[in-house]
Write a structure and sequence with these properties.
The complex is a heterodimer. By secondary structure, chain A is an all-alpha fold. Chain A has two domains: about 1-85; about 90-135. Chain A is built from four helices and no strands. In chain A, helix 1 runs antiparallel to helix 2 (about 60-80). Chain A is flat, with a radius of gyration of 23 Å. The model of chain A is unreliable at about 1-10 (pLDDT under 50). By secondary structure, chain B is mainly α. Chain B folds into two domains: about 5-35; about 40-220, Cytochrome c oxidase, subunit III, four-helix bundle (Four Helix Bundle (Hemerythrin (Met), subunit A)), CATH 1.20.120.80. Chain B has helices at about 5, 15-35, 40-70, 80, 85-110, 115-145, 150-185, 190-220. In chain B, helix 3 runs antiparallel to helix 7. Classes of the chains: A mainly alpha, B mainly alpha. At the A-B interface, helix 1, helix 2 and helix 3 of A face helix 3, helix 5 and helix 8 of B.
Chain lengths: ~130, ~220
């Protein structure tokens, strides 16, 4: 197996996450991708830290802005560092990612919803302690 | 006129049969070679599935933290505890290490030792710096009486951030192992597959840290 494996990564079929289709010896373009990713991620991080401490915007909007910036930065990392693309060679990777995101959203939203509901419906702790006496 | 056309000629039962056999053989070989995926793709995909399950585990810790963030039991909350300057340095370390890890994976694919070892060493130093700051922060919190036993909020905080820290620790050990393996065994395809999995792991840790510094530190300190 190890002998017959291709040395360059120009495959006809799918592509592994983190790999990029390239002809073997032109590394400038590949480094460029990581540089663009680093630049965008740095920009989003700086904006996040700035937004968190600022009094310039309406304060209830800050958490929403932070979530949006975080999701954007995760997208930047997925595209420029993990090399997840929308190309036909990446369908399997994207489908697995979509399923993972679905489970994450169900878990987060479900937990927060159920626990907020329980918290709302339950008797306050001090009253419950008094009833047990 | 090619041999194929001669074989496919009308009124020649032998030729027609040979033609069918030829097509069947071509179909069989296409399935045997073109249909099988390269081992690098299979390994990378399998490791991608593992990383997604790891992200799902972290999302459970995030949900726990979000539920318990207000349960401080009269103790300190995030605003009292978090130092955003430390968090900014940690973020810079991890982001830069993700970039150098990408450079190392290029170096490995190009079989270029100076790139690979240099970038891996930079990744290692940045990761270790991140870990040092985090351990320092944890020790400071415990010394101030804000350890994981103080409140449900702090239990959830130490579980979530500590789990990420453990992942970084494991990643650092893996990183040193990969440097040693490339040094000892060279750029063999199986070693390169491990380097690919390591770089996927390290990039994913940075993605989780993005969620961590946004949700835990920036929202908590604000």
């Amino acid at each position: 197996m190890s002998q017959s494996e291709p040395e360059n990564f120009a495959y006809d079929a799918d592509i592994a996450p983190g790999d990029e289709r390239f002809d073997g010896y032109d590394d400038d373009e590949v480094v460029g991708t990581y540089l663009v990713g680093l630049g965008l991620a740095t920009l989003l991080t700086v904006v996040s830290f700035f937004i968190a401490g600022t009094t310039l915007v309406w304060s209830p909007s800050i958490p929403v802005a932070l979530v949006v910036l975080a999701v954007a930065q995760m997208g930047v990392h997925l595209v420029f560092f993990l090399k997840i693309t929308t190309g036909p060679d990446n369908v399997n990777n994207v489908m697995a990612l979509a399923f993972g995101v679905l489970i994450v959203l169900l878990l987060l939203a479900g937990s927060l919803w159920i626990m907020a509901n329980l918290n709302h419906n339950m008797m306050p702790m001090d009253q419950m302690m008094q009833m047990q006496r | 006129m090619s041999a194929f056309e001669v074989a496919a000629g009308n009124g020649d039962p032998n030729g027609a049969r040979r033609n069918r056999e030829l097509r069947a053989r071509r179909f069989a070989t296409e399935h045997a070679t073109g249909g099988l995926l390269s081992k690098r793709i299979v390994v990378g995909y399998g490791f991608w599935i593992f990383l997604l399950s790891d992200i799902i585990m972290f999302s459970a810790f995030f949900a726990t933290y979000a539920v318990l963030v207000g349960a401080t039991a009269g103790g300190p909350n995030g605003h009292d505890l978090f130092d955003l300057r430390n968090v900014a340095i940690e973020t810079a370390c991890l982001l830069l290490s993700s970039f150098t890890c990408g450079l190392a994976s290029i170096g490995a694919r190009m079989h270029r030792g100076s790139w690979f070892y240099g970038a891996m060493a930079a990744t290692c130093i940045l990761g270790a710096a991140f870990l040092f700051i985090e351990v320092h922060e944890f020790a400071g919190m415990v010394a101030r009486g804000a350890g994981p036993t103080r409140s449900a909020f702090l239990s959830a905080f130490f579980t979530l951030v500590g789990c990420h820290g453990l992942h970084v620790t494991a990643g650092l050990l893996w990183l040193l192992t990969m440097m040693a393996q490339v040094l000892a065994k060279g750029y063999r395809p199986d070693i390169l597959r491990r380097v690919l999995c390591f770089s996927l792991f390290w990039h994913t840790l940075d993605i989780i840290w993005v969620a961590l510094f946004s949700v835990v530190y920036l929202m908590g300190a604000g």
